[in-house]
Specification:
eleven-stranded antiparallel beta sheet, mainly beta, 479 residues, single chain
């Protein structure tokens, strides 16, 4: 952060503000930094020598992760975001971005990637100045068209194309590029999807062994609600982080169709002919989301404790999430089966597909992002089977020919439970937060739950479809 004159419409007032600015304490912020991060290049085109196979193009060469960690360690003030400060009577920046300001207006604070991906030098420059002045900036490609940008750096500490994560330093805070006044040491940070800036959302940080989330730590849900240091009002925002080593508490298991966040599965149906969702006693009770051929894939994609209305379009590999962040993701190719689940234990469902022809699982922003687990004819049955309560779905398949369940890293790793013609319906049937292997026998309407309470139930008749198995999987293997 720096001593910056108030940005006023009238030149005379601006000059007066500049005269008065030095009166405050060292580094006192008195107005917004006029900055421009410069052009942001698009992610590199996929290697033409790699097969056009949806997410496998990138999944095999590195690790992608959502930009969800604070990119700073040292103390910084939250400055301009989207509309929380003004320049010449207009919102500044006017689009989503966060200026993190150094309180002492000095260079050198370390800057880290906000999540895993491939980093690129976006622009270079050593000076600060007006329009046209190049500056140091780094972009990280997080996959799926998502990029995070780190601008006005003093130094760049990555090599072009380097794979990074939230523990990788990408540069140091500086004042290069289009910055007024100069110097004004700060980090301009923003996230964009397919070229459009989006709300960067909550950013995690460690305070010792405690995980905190900004801006929620200030008592607000949006960065744009934080009041800049030079403006009257509250809350003001100072951020810091001790790194990423603090372990989050494992999230509680959530019903897959809990649309209102009350912890109970809602009675609901999806009408393929119209794309309508009908939720009994739900809020909302009726939503139109989808078109002919779409597959319903409801899950909690944004971590708010409520299942999102979502569909997967097999013809394009696109996921459409109602009111989601992101709302549109392309992840998958023809023949893939959508298998959304929380594979990394962060409380949010990951976009994921299973490729029956190869037994490969592709998880967007997942850890791991690519797993081979299964063979031709196996049915994907992800769930948290290992009893460790970590909230992570395990990669698992059911082999109809033998009734065997194979769980990657699971405890147990191999279970025989089922007979020819049975439909696998894994779930937490006894409330212990662990997935139970279970099968539904269509010929009798019986449910057999391994170690379950009850272990045997009759519920259904010939031709009924068990809803415990996601429709996408049932459609692929049993229709």
């Amino acid at each position: 952060m720096s001593r910056k004159p108030l940005v006023l419409a009238a030149a005379a007032l601006a000059a007066l503000a500049a005269t008065l600015a030095p009166v405050g304490p060292v580094g006192a912020q008195t107005g917004p930094v006029i900055d421009d991060p410069g052009p942001v290049e698009a992610p590199p085109s996929p290697n033409p020598d790699l097969p056009e196979a949806g997410p496998s193009v990138k999944a095999g060469v590195g690790q992608y992760g959502a930009p969800e960690w604070l990119p700073l360690r040292a103390l910084a003030d939250v400055g301009c975001v989207r509309t929380n400060c003004n320049f010449n009577g207009q919102p500044y920046h006017g689009s989503w971005a966060i200026d993190f300001l150094d309180p002492q207006n000095t260079a050198g604070d370390p800057i880290y990637a906000a999540g895993a991906g491939q980093a690129f030098v976006n622009e270079t420059g050593t000076q600060c100045g007006g329009p046209g002045t190049p500056g140091n900036s780094v972009r990280v490609d997080h996959g799926g068209g998502m990029i995070s940008l780190y601008a006005h750096l003093h130094t760049i500490t990555i090599t072009n194309g380097q794979w990074v994560d939230q523990n990788t330093q990408v540069g140091t805070m500086g004042t290069t590029g289009i910055v007024d006044p100069c110097p004004a040491h700060h980090l301009h940070y923003h996230v964009q999807v397919n070229g459009t800036r989006i709300d960067p959302g909550p950013l995690k940080a460690c305070h010792g062994s405690t995980l905190v989330t900004y801006p929620q730590a200030f008592g607000v849900s949006s960065w744009d609600s934080v009041v800049p240091p030079w403006e009257p009002g509250s809350p003001k925002g100072q951020v810091r982080s001790d790194g990423t080593a603090c372990a989050p508490t494992a999230p509680a298991a959530r019903p897959i169709a809990d649309f209102d966040g009350d912890g109970d599965t809602d009675v609901s149906v999806y009408r393929p002919s119209t794309g309508q969702w009908f939720v009994r006693n739900g809020n909302p009770a009726l939503v139109t989301w989808g078109t002919t051929g779409d597959i319903p894939v409801p899950a909690d994609y944004d971590g708010d404790g409520r299942a999102d209305f979502a569909v997967y379009r097999p013809s394009t590999g696109q996921w459409f999430v109602h009111n989601g962040n992101p709302a549109l993701v392309t992840w998958g190719t023809t023949g893939d089966i959508p298998v959304p689940a929380d594979y990394d234990g962060d409380g949010r469902a990951d976009f994921a597909v299973y490729r029956p022809s190869t037994g490969q699982w592709f998880v967007r922003n997942g850890n791991p992002a690519l797993v081979t687990w299964g063979t031709t004819g196996d049915i994907p049955v992800p769930a948290d089977y290992d009893g460790d309560g970590d909230g992570r779905a395990d990669f698992a398949v059911y082999r109809p020919s033998t009734g065997q369940w194979f769980v990657r890293n699971g405890n147990p790793a191999l279970v025989t439970w089922g007979a020819s013609g049975d439909v696998p319906v894994p779930g937490d049937y006894d409330g212990d937060r662990d997935g139970d292997p279970a099968v539904y026998r269509p010929s009798t309407g019986q449910w057999f739950v391994r170690n379950g309470n009850p272990a045997l139930a009759t519920w259904g008749t010939a031709g009924d479809i068990p809803l415990a198995l996601p429709w996408a999987i049932y459609r692929a293997f049993f229709t």
